[in-house]
Amino acid sequence: MNGSLFVTMMKNNAKTVCSFTFGSMFYLVLIIWLYPYIADSKVFDTMFETLPEGYMKAFGLHAGISSLSGFVAGEYYGLLFIIILLIFCVTTATQLIARLVDRGSMAYLLASGLSRMKIALTQASVILICLTVIITLTTLTGVIGAELFIEENNFATGSFIKLNIVTYLLFFVISGYCFLFSCLFNDEKRALAISGALSFIFFAVDMLAKVSDKLDWLQYFTVFSLFDATSIAEGNVDILPISISLGSAGILLYALAIIIFKKKDLPL
């Protein structure tokens, strides 16, 4: 890893990270602030009772609105936060390697005497640090927001922190395959398209698997099947085996990406 390159890349990505972080914090605070009004509304109770079970499960609403933890997990971590982090991982991973190769900037880095191994390790650390910043500040926002806006606070802070740990590990894997495609392809658009398409397919397959019991076999074809936000937030899931699986897969993907980048022929 190279310190100068790391600082430069962090500066280059600072605006992007700030945008995603503040966007995530804003939506989470908004959802927590709205919760008391929704929890007291009979309209939402009636609406949830009329929705099909598969639909409720697919969107993480099967826990209803009886607790703030389940509501936040279903409304935010079940959909919106996932989309925010998907967009961040796909675009940032592509920019860190494939864009530099595609636009010829990688030649200047290599000409400065940095090895491919150092460059790849530094770029990988940049996206992982950025993910850490976004998820850590979102976690703190959730804990503080629940204290500020909820009078009868039934927010399960411990389970919420566990939910964010699993969220980080899930996106450790997703950013890992996005980074791998960025190292594999010399064309920025191709790396972006394949990373985005695979992420969309994984997400869509997970939704389909939850909609109907006849399609639950699809859960074996998506990484999202390891992430049941509502159950984790309610403390009904042992996150240790999930964390080990996701952590191992993420390490493997990043290691493979760095090896590919080290050995590939670059068009420079």
From TrEMBL:
One GO CC term on file: plasma membrane
Any Pfam family: ABC2_membrane_2
TM stretches of this protein: 20-38, 76-98, 119-145, 165-184, 191-209, 239-261
Coiled-coil spans in chain: none
Keywords (A to Z) from UniProt: Membrane, Transmembrane, Transmembrane helix
Tagged with keyword Transmembrane helix: yes
Keyword flag Transmembrane: yes
Any GO MF annotation of the entry: ABC-type transporter activity
Protein name in UniProt: ABC transporter permease
